[in-house]
Amino acid sequence: MTKHRELHTGGRSYACSQCEKTFSHHSSLYRHINIHTSKYRCSMCGKCWRSSYDLAVHKPCHSGVKLFKCNVCCKQFSSSSELVVHSRIHTGEKPYKCHVCDKAFSQSSNLKSHIRIHTGEKPFKCSLCNECFTQDSSLQKHKRVVHSNSRPYECPFCGKLFKTNMDVKRHVRIHTDAKPYSCRHCSGRFTWRNQLMTHLLKSHNDGTWFTCNICHKKSASKDELKQHLFRHEDVKPYVCSECPKCFHTAGELTRHQPVHSDYKQFCCGLCGKDFKRAASVKSHFKMCYSKQKFTNAFRCNVCDKVFSQKVHMRIHSVEKPYECSRCNKCFSQSGHLQRHNRHVHSNNRPYYCPFCGKLFKTNKDLKQHVRIHTDAKPYSCRHCSGRFTWRNQLTTHLLKSHNVGTWFTCNICQKKFTIKSYLKQHLVRHDDVKPYVCNECSKCFYTAGELTSHQLVHSDYKQFCCGLCGKDFKYKNIVKKHFKMCCAKHRFTNA
Fold first, then answer.
1. Contact at 8 Å (CB) between 463 and 359?
2. Residue 110 sits in which domain range?
3. pTM for the whole thing?
4. Which of 131, 283, 312, 482 sits at a 20 to 30 Å CA gap from 297?
5. What is the CATH number of the domain that holds 177?
6. Helix, strand, or coil here: 17?
7. pLDDT over threshold 60, residue 6
8. Is residue 280 a contact partner of residue 266, using CB atoms and an 8 Å limit?
9. Is there a single domain that holds both residue 94 and residue 220?
10. Is 35 part of a structural domain of the chain?
C-alpha cells in the first residue's frame, strides 16, 4: 500500500547513481540502469539501449533514412512510433487522459509532465544551485540561461548576443518595429505584451489593476508591483559580485556589470568587431553597413536601383531560364517554378479546413480561408479603427474613405478599380478575350476562377469534405447545407 500511494503523491525513493534520475519502484530503477551498463551502445552518439532491436530502430536516425511516410501530408520519419505520434495531429486523437482534471494529450510524455502539476513533483535538480524542475527541458534551459555564459544567438541588425533564440526574436522587434500584439477593441498594435495590457486597462478598462497599498500607485502586472514595493522598502536584492553595490531590479544589475568586465557582448554582424556598449555597436554598424553595401552592391544600369544580387536584371531582360517541363511556362526564379508545379500540376491537397472540410494545396491558402469562419480581421486602417479580413478590403477602404492610394482606371469605360489585377480582368471583357480554355470540352472563360468552377462538371473529384462525418462533396453550397444538417443531428445525438 505504501508503494502504491507513492504513485499519487509523487514520491520517488529510488535514485540512479549515474544520472540522478529517481523512480517510484525498484524494478523501474533496475530497468533504467541497464541503459548505462548495456552492451548495445550506438557507435555514433554513445547512447545505450536495452536490446539489439532497440539499437537497430535507433540507428536510422543518424543515417538520415526515413522509411515511414505520412499518407496525409507526405512528411517522412525514421521510425514507426514517430509516425504514429505525428498522425495524431491529423486525426486529433488524444489517448492519454489525466485522471485528475480529465485533460487529454497525444503523447504519454506530455501526460507525465502534466501530472507533476498536480503532484508538485520536481524530479530534475540543478547540480549547481539545487533548484528543481518538473521537466528535463526546463532544467536544460535553466542551465543555459542562468549558469552559462555562452551567447550563440546574434542580432543581425546591431550584433548583440543572446543566450536563447527566443531572446533574439524579441530583441529584433526593436529594429523591425514589429507589433505582434493587437487590441481586440480598437486598431491599436503593440511591440510588447505589457504595453497591450496597460492599453487595455487605461483605454478600455479591460483587466485588473495591481495597486500599491502604500502610495496607491497602479501597476498593469504583478511583477511591476513587486518591483515598485522594493523601492518603498528600500530593498535591493540584486548585489554585484565584484563590488558591494546593490540594485532594485535584475536589469539594473545587468547594466552595471560591464563596468567590471572586459566582456563585449555586442558584436557587429557584418565585420565581427566586438563592443561593450549597445550605443557603440549601433553607430559602428551604420558605418559598416553603408560601407559594405557600397562595396558589394549590384547597381541596375536600367533603373539605377541597388541590389545584393543580380536576379533583378531579369525583369528588364525578360530572361526566364527556369522552364516547366509540363506546360513549357518559364520563370525568372527557381522558387517561382516550384510554386507553379505545386499549385498548377499537383492534385495533392493535404490541408483541410476543420470547419467546413474544404481541402487546400498549401497551408497559406488554408490560413486565409479559415478567416471566413473565425471572422479574423488582421488588416487594420492606420487612419481610423476600421479592421478588415482581406488586404483588398483595406485598400478599397483607404481609397474611398481616406483618399490614400492610387485608383486604376479603365481607359474605355472609365470604371475605377482598387487593384491592378482587377483592371486587367476587366479589360479582357472589353476585348472579349477568353484565354482560359477547358481541356475537356473546349469551352472558354475570362478568368481562371470561372474555369476552375466549370471543370468540376467533368470531374468526380470532391474537394469539399464535411468536418463532422467525413462525407465528400463536389460543390461548396451542397456541403454547406449538409454541414448544417449534420451539426443539428450531432447536437441531438449528444444532447
1. yes
2. 2-146
3. 0.35
4. 283
5. 3.30.160.60
6. coil
7. no
8. yes
9. no
10. yes
- Give 381-389 contacts, CB < 8 A, sequence gap 24+: 381/187, 382/187, 384/187, 385/186, 385/187, 386/187, 387/187
Q: What is the pLDDT of residue 9?
A: 45
Give the chain's domain count: 2
Other CB atoms closer than 10 Å to residue 55's CB: what's the count? 18
Count the residues in the chain: 495
Q: Is the residue at 357 inside a domain?
A: no
Is 21 in contact with 33 (CB distance < 8 Å)? no
Q: What is the pLDDT of residues 224-233, one digit of tens each?
A: 888 788 777 7
- Residue 485 domain flag: no
> With contact defined as beta carbons under 8 Å apart, do 464 and 470 qualify?
no
Provide DSSP, 136-185: HHHHHHHIIIII-----EE-TTT-BEESSHHHHHHHHHHHH----EE-SS
Residue 287 pLDDT greater than 80, yes or no: no
Q: Are residues 183 and 225 in the same domain?
A: yes
Q: Could you tell me the end-to-end alpha-carbon distance of the chain, in angstroms, rounded to an integer?
A: 41
Contact 119, 11 (CB under 8 A): no
Q: Which residues are CB-neighbours of 407 under 8 A, at least 6 positions away?
A: 399, 416, 417, 418
